[in-house]
Design goal:
heterodimer; A: 297 residues; alpha+beta; five-stranded mixed sheet; 7 strands; 12% strand; B: 148 residues; alpha/beta; 40% helix; 14% strand
Chain lengths: 297, 148
């Protein structure tokens, strides 16, 4: 897609080239006319015809792109207002369901049988989960729309910060984290941070049910796809038969009761990596840990 | 200035839940409800259906953004544009955390921005803190600034 300013410039250049071509054909024609009048007139005619045709074709091509781009722009705006309505309007009824369920528990909870209280608890649980789903879905759609820049990013540094935050939130977790020093990438800083955060949080989560948890963040130099960054853990892993499902939104390979989550994290990672023109893939086996690789260009 | 709260909110469930949250937080101030931007402006400027109302102002305005007829952003603009209400504390209370809403409201002089959580317990806690802060802790602008 060519940006509008560049396209305007291209239009000017095309017009200029046509005018120059016109001048060249006319002056060359005049020169040639003195020696071979018939030949010169014919050649000049063909030259003018070629010039006019190419001019028309080029201008038409640019106009076509203009139209496509405007349609794309409209579609994007529509999508934006759609997701705005979703995040605003879908949350309101959820607040009512959660709030009034809670009101029932508070107001007449002592008159309700245990089973009814349990049902109300399930209603509230499901409501809050849907709230999280909506939030995560919005975050995913924002990742696809965000403006991107390319800067030098120290991924080791980012990983350290993410791990420090996780340790602060869950000080009781004993995890050995190894981060290779000096992992450099050229990427959009907030987006690549979000990707790394999702991968490390996953590793953190899926090692929660074993002793001696370990996470390693580094760079693999070999491999057919060239150097790739990786986040490896020795946690619950996954069934490699379903590896293709890992990165789809709302896809989960574990029960929510076992490991909480909405199934949006890896879809977000994939979208970020793809926006950088990179690739993301995973290796793992059940109870044998997982390793997520990604490239950024 | 009266110690009342003006709640501008079109969703009756949210009105009910907000009132409940205030009651649970032992905030006894009178809560005036405006169900859209027009009602809010009528109340603040004693116009329309509120013509002839003595020109008292609430201690704080809790303002939703997405509303029928006149939306929250426009209400905020009108409040800031009028000399009598330009310093009135306005807290945005909405479902949205879209960047453009944060930017638009802060740049038009909103004093605070709170996202209504789905979880009612979190909502009660938010309302409790909000009430504590804006009704007790915060020192309002001097009364003379509201008489222009």
């Amino acid at each position: 897609m060519i940006e509008p300013r560049r396209r305007r410039l291209m239009r000017v250049v095309i017009h200029a080239i046509t005018v120059l071509g016109l001048l060249a054909v006319v002056s060359l024609g005049q020169l040639a006319y003195r020696t071979a009048p018939t030949y010169a007139t014919g050649a000049a005619g063909v030259g003018l015809l070629l010039l006019a045709t190419s001019h028309l074709l080029l201008v038409r091509e640019i106009t076509k792109r203009d139209r496509t781009e405007r349609a794309l722009h409209d579609a994007n705006r529509e999508l934006e207002s759609f997701s705005y309505s979703v995040s605003h309007d879908l949350r309101a009824p959820l607040r009512s369901i959660d709030g009034f369920s809670q009101a029932l528990v508070e107001d007449i909870g002592d008159q309700l049988p245990e089973e009814a209280l349990n049902h109300l608890d399930r209603i509230r649980h499901a409501t809050r989960r849907m709230g999280r789903l909506i939030d995560d879905l919005m975050a995913l759609s924002k990742v696809g729309r965000a403006e991107m820049s390319r800067e030098r990013v120290d991924l080791s540094d980012v990983a350290e910060q993410v791990v420090a935050e996780l340790r602060r939130q869950q000080p009781a977790r004993q995890i050995a984290v190894t981060i290779a020093p000096g992992l450099q990438a050229t990427a959009d800083p907030p987006l690549v941070r979000l990707a790394l955060q999702n991968l490390i949080e996953n590793a953190w989560k899926f090692t929660s049910r074993r002793d001696g948890s370990a996470i390693e963040i580094g760079q693999a130099r070999d491999g057919e796809l060239g150097p790739a960054f990786f986040v490896r853990d020795n946690g619950a892993g996954f069934d490699p038969d379903y590896a293709h499902k890992l990165f789809g939104p709302f896809q989960r390979l574990h029960a929510v009761s076992e490991f909480p989550g909405t199934g949006i994290g890896l879809a977000t990672v994939q979208r970020i990596v793809h926006r950088h023109g990179g690739r993301v893939w995973a290796e793992g086996k059940i109870n044998g840990g997982a390793c997520f690789y990604f490239t950024l260009s | 200035m009266m110690n009342e709260i003006l709640l501008v909110e079109d969703n009756p469930d949210d009105v009910e839940l907000t009132m409940r949250a205030f009651r649970k937080s032992n905030i006894a101030n009178e809560i005036v409800v405006a169900r859209d931007g027009v009602e809010a402006l009528d109340y603040l400027f004693s116009s329309g259906a509120q013509t002839g109302r003595p020109p008292t102002l609430p201690q704080v305005v809790l303002l939703d953004l997405k509303m029928p007829r006149v939306d929250g952003l426009h209400v905020l603009e009108r409040i800031r544009a009028h000399p009598r209400t330009r310093l009135l504390p306005v807290v945005i209370l909405t479902s949205s955390i879209e960047e453009k809403d944060l930017l638009n409201t802060y740049s038009r002089g909103a004093n605070s921005y709170i996202r209504k959580p789905v979880d009612f317990q979190e909502f009660v806690e938010a309302v409790r803190q909000l009430g504590l802060y804006w009704l007790l802790l915060n020192q309002p602008p001097p009364p003379s600034s509201f008489t222009a």
